[in-house]
Amino acid sequence: MEEPTEVKAAILAKYEITQDIYRQRFRALEVYPGETPRELYVRLKELFSKWVRPEQKSVKEISEMMILEQFLRMVNTEMEVWIKERNPKTAEEAAQLAEVFISARRSKGPCSFSRDQHFSRKSGQLLHW
Questions:
Q1: Phi (first) and psi of residue 128, to 5 degrees
Q2: Which positions ≥6 away from 65 have C-beta within 8 Å?
Q3: pLDDT of residue 20
Q4: CB–CB of 97/86 below 8 Å?
Q5: Would you say residue 120 has pLDDT above 60?
Q6: SMART domains per the record (predicted)?
Q7: How far is CA 34 from CA 9, 22, 26, 40, 86, in A?
C-alpha cells in the first residue's frame, strides 16, 4: 500500500499542481466573492506554505527562491521563458543563463534584457513598451 504522501504527490503530478502553480495563486490579486479578511489570510498562508515549503528550507534557500522569482519577473518574456526551460535552481544560475542568452544574440545588434524593453530582430531596433 502506498504512503499517503506518495498518493498525494502522484495526484499533484497528474494534475500538474507544482510549486509554481502555488506561487501564481499566491501572487494573484484575487479576493474570492464573499471571502472574509480572515479567510483570505488563511488561504494566502496555505498557498505560501505549499509554494515555499518553509519547514523544508533554510532562510538562505527561501531568500534565493524569492530573488530568483523577482529576477524572472524583471527580464523580458522571451528571456524568462528561455531561462525557465533550463530550470535554474538559483538566481545566480539564472543570471548566468541570461548572460548566455544575451551573448548569443549580441551579433544581431543591441539586446536589452529588461521586461519593459524588447529587441526586435526584424528591424534591429530596441523597442520601448
A1: -105, 120
A2: 52, 57
A3: 86
A4: yes
A5: no
A6: SCAN (SM00431)
A7: 31, 22, 18, 10, 41
C-alpha cell at 38: 480572515
Beta bridge partners, 75, equal 114
**Do 62 and 42 form a contact (C-beta atoms < 8 A)?**
no
CB atoms within 10 A of CB 22: 19
Length of the chain: 129
| CA distance linking residue 88 with residue 68, whole number of Å | 9
**Mind listing the pLDDT tens digit for each residue in 50-66?**
999 999 999 999 999 89
Q: Which of 93, 100, 28, 41 is nearest to 67 (CA)?
A: 93
Percent of the chain with pLDDT over 70: 74
DSSP of the chain, one letter per residue? ---HHHHHHHHHHHTT--HHHHHHHHH-----TT--HHHHHHHHHHHHHHHH-GGGS-HHHHHHHHHHHHHHHHB-HHHHHHHHHT--SSHHHHHHHHHHHHHHHGGGS----BTTEEE-TTT--EEE-
